């Protein structure tokens, strides 16, 4: 064979391969991946810490457009934002995009948690959680939550002149979770769990370098202790369920243990119970405590909106006899208060953003997101878009008077579509009951007029929001 032809036949496949690679690389979103493993992680975490994360992302958008590649927490990722981006994240089928959190979150919470599952596994575990968290079931728990809030205020607020709101709200929401969701009574086990839990959540968004001095390592060790406590608790609940005939809806763990599949086998494995209970702990503890804290701050800054909330809550209080617990029907009358809560969620969403993983090449915005890459989306990017919400920096609950006017997939504090948070109704009840007792029992003034906050990764107001409190004359309860 002609030597020239031999070389040509040899070079053609190489040329075609290079051409294909070039085309693929041309279709990759713009942006830099930065240093190996670290990428842009430290830069983003610092921006979150000093509350400039939105500006950090806006700078990326100005430089690269609405889609760009980067590297976060050890993974190659693509940042996307806007209504279309949210719709892709929340509605894409499980064969195209999968739930996939950063390595740090998966390692700390466990790989069988709802944020990691997709397809039939996701549906099975989600359905199990929803069976406990759906409104029909939660109606039965309003009285218990009322009792927890009253006990908390008596212990930590009454007789005080000054309190720091965020740590107290975290104490309250953790106690509500322990009582309602896990059936753990006050005592040594609950104290140990709260201590381990607080150390565990500190490394949720961290670079997954497992050295003894890192946040990641400390969180992993705390996570192991939390799992041990939960496994002991599951064992105890299983015995109570089998021997004493406990009600299957006594608490979340008992509910998950009682769900049966084919051949009367457990529908949810022990690992799935542990990992999803840990997820619910994180979601229920941080999101509600942050929402209530920022509502307290926003109400202190806006007397007109505060007056509207107080009027609504005092009307509910007047309809109750002395010592009577709040009911589901009372909560349905708190429409204005919930609009205030939604506007707070728009301005300060507790969840900064999240991740998905491309299971195959995804074409989006004229680019290819390669199989295996992560997709990073951020909640506040549509919340603060002036094309969607007029005067986005203004605190205006009236935006939610007519919710259908808000375009779909633009207001996403609880996610959207099939991926909407199963605990959103639980958070609503928790928030309304707490705000009811705060505004009917106390007035308050901010001790710190600095309106800044940092993210770690949840929003934390300056100094944890210290306030001066004055008791009100009790009306009826």
TrEMBL record:
Protein's membrane topology: Single-pass membrane protein
InterPro entries membership: Cyt_P450, Cyt_P450_CS, Cyt_P450_E_grp-I, Cyt_P450_sf
UniProt KW keywords: Heme, Iron, Membrane, Metal-binding, Monooxygenase, Oxidoreductase, Signal, Transmembrane, Transmembrane helix
GO terms for cellular component: membrane
A Gene Ontology molecular function term of the record: oxidoreductase activity, acting on paired donors, with incorporation or reduction of molecular oxygen
Highest taxon in the source lineage: Eukaryota
Pfam families recorded: p450
Subcellular location: Membrane
Essential cofactor(s): heme
GO biological process: sterol metabolic process
Binding annotation for heme: 421
Leader sequence residues: 1-25
Protein family: Belongs to the cytochrome P450 family.
Stated name of the protein: Cytochrome P450, family 716, subfamily A, polypeptide 1
Organism from which the protein derives: Actinidia rufa
Species lineage: Eukaryota, Viridiplantae, Streptophyta, Embryophyta, Tracheophyta
